[in-house]
TrEMBL record, chain A:
One annotated GO biological process: amino acid transport
UniProt-recorded name of the protein: Branched-chain amino acid ABC transporter permease
Subcellular location: Cell membrane
Major location category of this protein: membrane
Organism from which the protein derives: Rhodoplanes serenus
Family, similarity comment: Belongs to the binding-protein-dependent transport system permease family. LivHM subfamily.
Keywords attached to this entry: Amino-acid transport, Cell membrane, Membrane, Transmembrane, Transmembrane helix, Transport
Domain of life: Bacteria
From TrEMBL, chain B:
Compartments, as annotated in UniProt: Cell membrane
Main location: membrane
Molecular function (Gene Ontology), one example: branched-chain amino acid transmembrane transporter activity
Pfam families per UniProt: BPD_transp_2
Keyword list, A-Z: Cell membrane, Membrane, Transmembrane, Transmembrane helix
Gene Ontology CC, one term: plasma membrane
Membrane topology: Multi-pass membrane protein
Protein's name according to its UniProt entry: Branched-chain amino acid ABC transporter permease
Domain of life of the organism encoding this protein: Bacteria
From TrEMBL, chain C:
The keyword Aminoacyl-tRNA synthetase appears for this protein: no
Annotated protein name in UniProt: ATP-binding cassette domain-containing protein
Domain ABC transporter: 5-238
CDD domains: ABC_Mj1267_LivG_branched
Domain of life: Bacteria
UniProt keywords, alphabetically: ATP-binding, Nucleotide-binding, Transport
SUPFAM superfamilies attached to this UniProt entry: P-loop containing nucleoside triphosphate hydrolases
GO annotation, biological process: D-alanine transmembrane transport; L-alanine transport; L-isoleucine import across plasma membrane; L-valine import across plasma membrane
The species this protein was found in: Rhodoplanes serenus
GO function terms (MF aspect): ATP binding; ATP hydrolysis activity; L-isoleucine transmembrane transporter activity; L-phenylalanine transmembrane transporter activity; L-valine transmembrane transporter activity
Amino acid sequence: MLSIWLNVVVQGVLTGLLYGLMALGLSAIFGVVRLVNFAHGEFAVVAMYAAFVLFRAWGVDPLWSMLPIAAVFFVVGFALQRTLINAFVGRPDYQQFILLVGVAIVLVNGLLIVFGPDAQPANLPYAFDSYLVGPLIIDKVRVYAAVAALAVCAALFGFFRFTRTGTAIRACADNLVGAAVVGLDVRRLYAVTFGIGLACVGAAGALMVTIADPVPGLGPAYTLLAFTIVIIGGLGSMAGALVAGLLIGVSEAVAGFLIAPSMKSMFSFALLIAVLVLRPQGLLGKKPA
Amino acid sequence: MISLWRDMNRRGQVVLVVAVLAMLLAPVVATRYLLSVLTLILYFVYVGQAWNLMMGYAGQLSLGHALYVGLGGYVAAGLWVHFGIGPWLGVIPAVAIAAAFGAFIGWLAFRFGIEGVYFSLLTIAFAEFTRIGFDHIGPLGGAGGLFIPYQESRLGEWWNLRGGQLFFYYLAFVLAGAAVLLTAWLARSRLGHQWMAIREDETAARALGIDVFRAKMKAVLISSAMTAVGGVFYAFYYNNLFPAQVFEMSRSIELILGPIVGGLGTVFGPVIGAFVLTPLGELLIAVTDKAGLNAPGAKAIFFGLVLMIIIYLVPGGVWPWLSRRLGLVRRRS
Amino acid sequence: MTALLQVSGVGKRFRGLVAVDRVSFTVAAGEIFAVIGPNGAGKTTLFNMIAGVLKPNQGSIAFRGERIDGLTPDAVCRRGVARTFQIVRPFPALTVEDNVVIGALLHRTDMEAARRHARDVLATLDLHDKRDIVASSLTLPDRKRLELARALATDPKLLLLDEVMAGLRPTETDRMVDILRRINREMGTTILLIEHVMRAVMALAGHMLVLHHGAPIAQGKPEEVVRDAKVISSYLGAEAAP
């Protein structure tokens, strides 16, 4: 009995790391650019399809293809922020929302036209291999994907902590006016942040292919998931996003196992509501001054 | 209502009268298909107006209004299917339950200071939560849907909302008309001014003695109750309800696009928005069909692009711009 | 004269830091009372406690004999204390008239009556011909007067003004002084000013209180207070020698 539980939790943790990576991208965009990226999940699904195509056509493993996909997503994000989205920074929430809903609709339906509405299994060669660790049976794919997600997260933490640009972006998030006063090019930093945010989603989406089949309809669900995680973790807290990702991953796995897989996201939403009411700054967020 | 009329200049009044007459007489010439499109437009005018009160006037961005449509529809349809209670009676518990949900969400949000994007996410969370819940409510059909059976014998029972296209067209017309009049009246009322003050600046509103919590609660109550009536209409018009369809976030979005495109916080914005967007959608279906692009996605892509363009170019909505251009509103002196 | 506002031993601490230290004063009905002091003296904290934004840690505030400390800002306003904001906050998308109508609606349910009252107030404040302009397109002096008009439309017994002169040029300051004097004389509204601009205070106030580091250091008629040695060294002296 205990071993079953352990299996469920481990599986949740591994999935949660991917969720965390995806949410990290949103956390950066939401926390720094203050933009409500309502197309976040849709971008993740685009990345899933990109990884899927690269694998089907040339046999590129998603664990590798996530790198070029993330790179392309960075460029796309940078360009998007520079052109379309910059005009919406500081505009009312609902206007940003409509713009990004527009983007999301275009993305989802573009996928729908190209790939059709049905799930397409990627069938990775090691999809059914697993490690046996004592009583645990752990899928290899999940381990690989989780390790890759952790690596990306570590790189990201390093970037924000140790590079000039990363520090500057954090300064923007803390104090926008101050950042502008000391001569930081806020617009460029915003574009870089949006690029990084999308690169995270790109990487997370590519890795997601290893555990879920791409379907266009997943987009809105992932968007909600990402927002849920960011808010539970605490706006502006990168560690919080990761922790909340794990929490959601585990709670979904446990709920899916205990009750019914179709009801698993009810727990995420209940958790979101509880956090909004009881601890609006999120689990690891700072209390607003 | 009188002041709504007085605020328009002669040209605006003529346009309004002609438009209302045209809508009243439309069934004489319209085909069945055209009538169904007009019914859909009027439905979106109605629910759009309900949402407009809450967002356009009180400034509370709800992205989960599909919740109230679904609750209203399910309660009335469930009472009808299981107990034979007609919708004219069933609308009362339908509205009460939806308003109770609205009150609960509002109370949570406004008591605990959940604002802005956080409020929007709270409304989404409740709608999604309810959607998944309804997937598992057996007596209401679960994920398999709830159907109102088609009974030949009851076809003329308009008092049970069992009628044909013509009946539903006029019902939608009355609902939409009532919603517009209610909005016009509220917009000029004391409550409407309190809402606008809250929308513009909550701190300043409070400093002027406005009980912000109460005013916001009234907004969410009125809006959710109104939306639930739309849900009853929806259920008896389409005769089927699926949780995945009625509670979906895309439903909430569909419902709010009209007011946003038409112009938030205006009386005629939701009307213009519905009259622009719904026919545009229908037209796109027709065109893509003709072109042999039998992909449902093509229409949606175009729709998404239109949204992006409108919000980029006329963020205040089409109506304020249009009424100025056509000179339909009296310049107050 | 009877006491309209009675502030008794009010204090406020933020994380151990004393912002306002046992301040007491009385504002009589019909007078203009000023609170002055250098930056960081606790003026705004004191103001916010009276307006209901902050709850005092100690002491009490009574308005017309009834305690108002700890009430919410809207409840304070409904009892007859209206305030303005130092950084003005008009309702930007609404017209000047609608801004004032919202104030007028506090004690009126009839829209026409509220509109008439709003127009009267606008006329008093020289804003009548700008009533159909959207508030966001007003100049700063006009916005300051709009802020005042909106507060005045709620028919307050006591008007709390948070640095209404700040940012105004001397001619505009004189105009504002004139308007405030008119409001005080003609409508009988009691005014409590928190102010930096000494010229305006001297011209208006019947009594004043000087705060320094959160504590009252002098109180009385303006002529007496400005001669007080403590006041000169802590405040006026610093101001006079820039």
